[in-house]
Design goal:
The strands form three sheets. This protein has a three-stranded antiparallel β-sheet. Strands 4-5 form a two-stranded antiparallel sheet. It has a two-stranded antiparallel sheet with strand order 6-7. The protein is 31% helix and 13% strand. It is an alpha+beta fold and 240 residues long.
């Protein structure tokens, strides 16, 4: 920042208010008080909030933990391009028993004895109730394991800040997983609750409540508009 810009900033922003400013560094990174580099940034362009800094072409630091009440979303900012590999290379097998998360979940959610095949490492046949469609399936190949809060959706709402370990944990967290009809899972894609709800209307309230629970557990960041719309949707579907 040159002397003219510094004088202008001092005229607009009183010295005692600088601790609350968002600082855009020369490299275009937006630092608010949550940034570990905030106090180190001496030459910067000041903004009232993150919204303004990001809208003006800025980006967030690679390591950044927002407050739970921050009213912005990563969508639309200069975040890294999403890749499924950022959440681990497919389903994990943390206990090394040859049964990965997909098949562990199928075994747990089956309401009948599961045929694990000759290798005893995969769930081939069982009985799975899909709450999304209100249908029951007997062949494992007919169902997908759906991420209730999609990985791409989570990435756009703060997961790009996480460590690889946390992203892998999220991708394999059973509280965020459902065995559902494959075609319905693919229809849903990376949609959140404002864009997509299951065909089974009787499951809408539970779906919304569980979605919101995962969002809160992992401290995913919603915009002010999303927060309002989430509450409105929950009121419409759950308070009848």
């Amino acid at each position: 920042m040159n002397s003219k810009s510094l004088i202008l900033a001092l005229l607009i922003f009183p010295v005692f208010g600088w601790s609350d400013l968002v600082k855009q560094s020369k490299s275009g990174i937006c630092h608010d008080t949550n940034s570990s580099y905030y106090n180190r940034v001496k030459s910067f362009k000041p903004y009232d909030n993150l919204h303004e800094c990001l809208s003006d072409g800025g980006r967030l630091p690679k390591v950044y933990k927002p407050n739970s009440d921050d009213s912005f979303t990563a969508k639309g900012s200069n975040i890294p391009k999403y890749s499924r590999s950022y959440f681990g290379n497919g389903w994990s097998d943390d206990d090394k028993d040859c049964i990965n998360t997909r098949h562990e979940l199928l075994i747990k959610q089956s309401s009948s004895t599961v045929d694990k095949g000759s290798n005893k490492c995969t769930a081939n046949r069982g009985k799975w109730y899909d709450p999304y469609t209100d249908r029951t399936f007997y062949e494992a190949r007919q169902v997908d394991i759906d991420h209730l809060v999609p990985l791409k959706w989570a990435w756009d709402h703060g997961a790009y800040h996480w460590t690889p370990e946390k992203r892998k944990r999220f991708a394999n967290d059973e509280s965020n997983l459902f065995a559902v009809q494959a075609s319905v899972n693919r229809e849903k894609g990376a949609s959140g609750i404002l864009e997509w709800l299951p065909p089974n209307r009787n499951f809408h309230c539970q779906y919304i409540l569980r979605f919101n629970r995962v969002v809160k557990t992992y401290e995913l960041v919603l915009s002010a508009g999303e927060t309002t719309d989430f509450k409105k949707l929950q009121s419409e579907k759950c308070l009848r």
